Structures
1.
Amino acid sequence: MPGFTIRPLAASDRRAVAFTFGRLSERSRYQRYLTTKPALTPRDLRLLLDVDHWHHEALIAYSPPPRAPIGIARYVRLKEFDAAEVAVEVVDGWQRHGVGTALMVALSEQAARAGIRRFHVSMLRDNAGARALARKLGRPNQPATVIAAAGNVVELTYSVSAGSSGPAGSSGLGSSPPSPPTATGVG
């Protein structure tokens, strides 16, 4: 697919966040939120848009014209200054086209500039795409490591690898995303 753009999420992106959520299937929502989530509440929207671009960063991807939001990736810094919880969602029609990878590469670069060295990811055990994305984005020779597992939820950690490059989309952040993975979303 043609290139897409990535930019920081702004407080004014309420409609874009709601639009993106509305384009996720029930399964994609379950994989992203680890529970059934038929709608975003006003509180959910406030929390998702409360981005300070240091402790809580979020990036949004847009399709080529007619420009529609197609994915969002975010991190929230943990108590350990150099670690953050990370999540990504990509609308169903754009999954497996490199959007998740491009978002995570750009987010990793932002995180590295903010002093974050490790990402923590909570995902469903059967979310093969999310596991593949975490493996792909970690530093070479430092694979994602399982830090906890309970029921169907697995928590992984991996070292942030900034500076990856490749040909998938276009980012307004000066990064070039790598080639597309077979990922559905992390989180």
2.
Amino acid sequence: MRPASAYASRCESFKYCCTLPCSAGGCYNFSMQEIVTTTRRPRFRRASEPPAFRLTDDDVVIIRQLARHRFLRSTHIAALVGRSLDRTNDRLSRLFHAGYIDRPRAQLDYYPTAGSAPMVYALADRGARLLIERDGIDFANVEWSRKNRQAGRPFIEHQLEIVDFYVALQRAVARRGNLRLIHPDEIVASFPDQSFSERNPFALRVKISHQGVTHEIGLVPDLVFGLTFADGSRRCFMVEIDRGTMPIARRDIRQTSLERKMHAYLTVHATKQHERQFGWKTFRVLTVTADEHRVRSTLTELRKLRVAGSQGPSLFFFTTRSELCGTDPLSHVWQDGNGRDARLI
């Protein structure tokens, strides 16, 4: 007989399965004893008697990925650590019941309509303490489990879409032998001024001029990465994942909007703040948004902006979530701010 963990890892929604095949790859016929065994551990509450567990180096890699990305699906984690989904699900279950990682309860909203959706995980307090001891990480706040309980579904979904893009990017680069992905950690390590590497290293303080008044605002890209080519040249990118909830434009520049973000990016480029802080010669801003109508409306506001010394609308590449689905960021044909076709490489 297969161990109970093997049945559980075949299908994350195994408690709903019968003797029929399911979309997760096929289930086995359960005897009543096996059903009792596999459903004994609660989904969102740690078992009073957790399974036998010994922390491995590979487990620590999983915990580091969760510290880096905040929230990850089980499928993300399998891709990031290079393991099979079955093996990954088994280790994730053990890490959860041992208290190193969390399953945020906000994802309970998924299960009435999407019972087979991949489980979402986050770093727990015990996992944070482990990384403090092993890696010397200086967390601003170690109460990760409390933050996980407070995180709402929109915030979690936004973080997951960022990782969707990042994982697709890694896979696309891996298929090309003449290209290397520069990860965010490597970018931070190469900063010309390491004082910027503290806390949030990619946070930018930008002074923008609006109707004759200067305002200082904060700007934090959703993702930052680079690409290095065989000849040693590189291209650098900042990514914005727009879920369609932020207003495109507002009368009050002190309030957040896509227009304000684009104004800030143009100012960063014009004042060469990216050179001083990141050590880059230039960059592009990639925006993945909800639909084509939102792209058109955003382009209309972008073309109204005038920032002396900036690259103008061509600084930005746009696409929609549906257009990017089924391809990858490198193969995809983006649209620049002037409406022309553009590619990352």
